[in-house]
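A quick aside before the break. I want you to see a complete sequence-to-structure record at least once, exactly as it would be stored in a machine-readable document. Don't worry about memorizing anything.
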Amino acid sequence: MALKRTTKSLPEDDDDIMEEEESTEEEEDGEEEEEREFPRWLRPLLIAIGMLLALGAGAAFGGIFVRNHDKKNEVVATINGEEITIQSLNHRMDVAAGNNAAHTMAQEMLFLQYAKKEDTLPKESEVASKYSEISADPKFSAELFRTHQAAEDIKRSLRINMARSAFITRGISVNEAETRQFYQSNINRANPNAQFFRPETVLIGIIVTQSAEEINKAVAALKEGQPFATVAKLYSKDRSATNGGMMPAIRRGQPGLEKSPEMNKIIFTLKPQQQTNPVRIGDAFWIIRCFDRQSEMTVPFEKAKSAAERGMLLYKGQLLNGKKIQDGLDAFQATSQINVRWPQYADAVTAKTSGDK
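That is the input. The structure line, written in tokens, reads:
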């Protein structure tokens, strides 16, 4: 949660412009996101899936522990008759993520207390309104269940992000020229994180085997009319087999494609619903099927203006307010009364919020 100063050029904004422009676009940002040009925590308005994924393993651990603390002997699953109890699961999660979760929870609590002191904490009605907006997403409930979270987990994340946004933009303004500067940076083809430009994007499925015999069996099954996903699960040795051979959406020019020019050519030559005959690439045999293709797109300035203005506002706010906010938070923590009753979490709970100290 550290409010760090950044020296990078221009940030991205959080508004999901591409989703609004093309409702059929697959969720792909999570798979291909690399280092951002701006601290990710400054994104104050999160769409449901992105926001849920950002909460991480710590929140999942907390949600499971709270709901099951009084069910120490409950059986979560059995493997050939051998039990996995909630007690053993909680212990394993505590070993794996307990300190990180305790540190994150302590930082969040300190930050919200400091935000209240500085009058940047959002009203609960504002949090509820934003929650209603994101929970309307059709995928929201399924993702909530998958990540073991409750409504309060999501509202807490919103509360923190909204408070951070209010903090960082306090006293900051931007003009038309600055807004256009941010926009131009984010339609630049050379910017892999450009918010308002989407390169050509392809959605493919693959079946990969190391033997000609296995790939021929897959071909025969496909010719018999078996679904691609079924055949991939039966014959593919790639880890994507568990997902029916489906791969994350691939953008033209994304890092890694240059390592296999042959694969790159195939992917961006196939038309939707076309698939290759078995082709040998490296030491394996491949069948590649194109399921969807989206042409490149640039969001017009007028449509992106609000998001571009917000992005520049956050960027300027970080440069001008970031260090001051961090110093204030550090001072607030130094004068806070922190009583750790479980010694094993003492270092995690009392560690400074600033990651560079």
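Two observations worth writing down. Residues 17-194+299-350 form one domain. The chain has a mean pLDDT of 82. We'll return to this after the break.
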